[in-house]
Amino acid sequence: MEGRLSTGVDVLDRELGGGVPAGTVVAYEAPPASQGELLLYELTRPRPTLYLTTDRTEQAVRDAFEATNAPTGDPEIGYIPGADSLENARRAFRSVPTESTVIVDPADALERADRSRYENFLNELGNHMRNVGGVAVLHCLDTGQDTALRGTTEHMADVVFRLRVSEENGDVETLLTVPKFRGGNAPDSSIKLNLGERVQVDTSRDIA
């Protein structure tokens, strides 16, 4: 669809009518004890990507990209230290070229800032993504104990991806939902995924 940018994950693009609109800020919520990082890695495939890590070292992230069998791009990787992480992230994303992807992994460190400063950061991030026609993805860890500003992230994001993992009788089921899609139609049903070596649709059982 015209005006849409591919996520790099074919199943998501199909469900979203071709991808996400240029200028979109995505909040991607996933449990830390999941294979959710695979989706982040594949998001780097379609466009030049700035991958900002707030906890792991740059080398650890590079090693993870080299080790994965998922299709990825060749992102620029930068470390955002905890001290004044908002300003460090702001300086980093201001330099991205047209039609780029910016990933913050995870965004929890940014959510610990003062609310007004964080809201200003999100507004500036959204404005910059619209100006360059890119996409920003905030990886939000779903620990069951949300940060004080998680609701702010969800409210100000244009799109919310939510990964849910359940275990029953030794089987792991992974579902991706899109509860929010500003300016578009959110999928009515969950997308059942198989997160083995890459992001794939799980066709082993129908979703109840």
Largest sheet: 9 strands, mixed
In helices, the fraction of residues equals 25-40%
Strand order of the largest sheet: 5-4-6-7-3-8-9-10-11
Oligomer: single chain
Structural class: alpha/beta
Low-confidence stretches: none
Give average pLDDT, whole number. 92
Distance separating the two termini? 30 Å
Overall morphology: globular
Q: How many strand elements?
A: 11
Strand residue content: 25-35%
Rg on CA atoms, Å: 16 Å
Task: Summarize the helix and strand pattern as letters.
Answer: EHEEHEHEHEHEHEEEE
Number of helical regions? 6
What does this 3D model show about the protein?
- This protein has 208 residues and is an alpha/beta fold.
- The chain is 27% helix and 29% strand.
- The chain has a nine-stranded mixed beta sheet, with helices on both faces. A two-stranded antiparallel sheet has the order 1-2.
- α4 (85-93) packs parallel to α5 (115-132).
Task: Please summarize what this structure is.
By secondary structure, this protein is α/β, with parallel strands linked by helices. It contains six helices and eleven strands. The strands form two sheets. Strands 5-4-6-7-3-8-9-10-11 form a nine-stranded mixed beta sheet, with helices on both faces. It has a two-stranded antiparallel ribbon with strand order 1-2.
Which features would summarize this protein structure in a list?
208 residues; 9-stranded mixed β-sheet; alpha/beta; two-stranded antiparallel ribbon; 6 helices
